[in-house]
Amino acid sequence: MTDTAPTAALLIIGNEILSGRTQDANMAHIAKYLAGIGVRFREARVVPDVEGEIIDAVNALRAKYTYVFTTGGIGPTHDDITAECVAKAFGVPLVRHPEAVRRLEKHYAGTDMLNEARLRMANTPEGASLIDNPVSAAPGFQIGNVFVMAGVPMIMQAMLAGLGDRLVGGPKVLVRTVASGVPEGTMADPLRAIAADFPGVDIGSYPAFRQGKISTSLVLRATDPAALDGATEAVLAMLRSLGVEPQVLEGYGDS
Amino acid sequence: MTDTAPTAALLIIGNEILSGRTQDANMAHIAKYLAGIGVRFREARVVPDVEGEIIDAVNALRAKYTYVFTTGGIGPTHDDITAECVAKAFGVPLVRHPEAVRRLEKHYAGTDMLNEARLRMANTPEGASLIDNPVSAAPGFQIGNVFVMAGVPMIMQAMLAGLGDRLVGGPKVLVRTVASGVPEGTMADPLRAIAADFPGVDIGSYPAFRQGKISTSLVLRATDPAALDGATEAVLAMLRSLGVEPQVLEGYGDS
Lengths: 255, 255
Hints:
alpha/beta, homodimer, six-stranded mixed sheet, Alpha-Beta Plaits
């Protein structure tokens, strides 16, 4: 399936993912969010807290996709280097954003907690616009087509939800899942022919285990409902010819 | 922390990860496995089932890291294109591997299941050596520094465990976690000074929630036990000067 909808990539920044300490929980959430607004999620990368790696990845991805999201590395500690790396990637200075300072001052009003380390969370590349953080005040930011968000899932999700019409999607991808009842290899050849007949429909084939038997979930994805219907009917007819009674589930079903 | 130990990258291949249908379960497992044998896991990428994307990623990663692991796309269906893409990345033909055919014939002996689609799972780039699949026979393969494995976690884990001394590690990274009892921003400045004093120790700082309070887990990683001890002592002294009694946990602790 090829189309002209906006595309996106995710850059996950953090040693903790690569060391195995932390299981990433953001990629699947972002994938579902982007699918819901009609943006095609095309690539994800995980890099360590190393300046050159972050800069190179930001520049590679922002040149290739409509939107780039980053998660991680925007806290107050020495290992939080995302803002300065994104500034370097764009070739602009890192500046203290006045509105970000105001938000931190408001959040920490009446305490003596707003030290220099926390004020660093107000540093953004020059020309960036803020991304709201309704959880803990310290904002993310957007510069060009790059959206810099927190790594803590609860905060990242709130930031993403607040982006609203800063993200413009295309036609949504419609999804249907067929629980086939047969193993992949048994139907792979006829399935290949159907996939060739419906180039506008992406057909994924995934091993599944149902009632103790090896089966296959077929996931059909398309923007055109008629093409999706046609491919689904062809898949069902093919499976029935193999002597099974497949089940059609809306979306990803329980697959 | 910079050292000369072997490095590795992971390439996750599959639309199902980028669509949000499937939560990747392989990255964290591979991260822990590599840490255990002293290989530095430095980058991960997720790409869709698109030939050009897979070829480009394989070539970028194999030039940069000691080892590259791929997961996904080695089944019998039309969307399983990893083997042919890796062959193209290496500029060699895709051939039917006789030993892989023998294993499939043995696995499916006495059935009529070994059709052309399943035999495709015996295709490897010319010159590849097989990676055992004790779960479902169809092997992975190694060519050069690239290890091609299944995407199904149970099969991937068995393949990885069987690589044995095909992977040579360096010194293991020793890990210690300090449950600090204070929020990140409160200690960020003194922590930055400690990180600068111990360039051989990687100090990660991660927000944590303990007994309803915002806290921080500090993760110290180093190959040199003396450096790790020194940095840990410095961190503990710094935290005590802030009036808290930090806890030291071996490894990643319960953080």
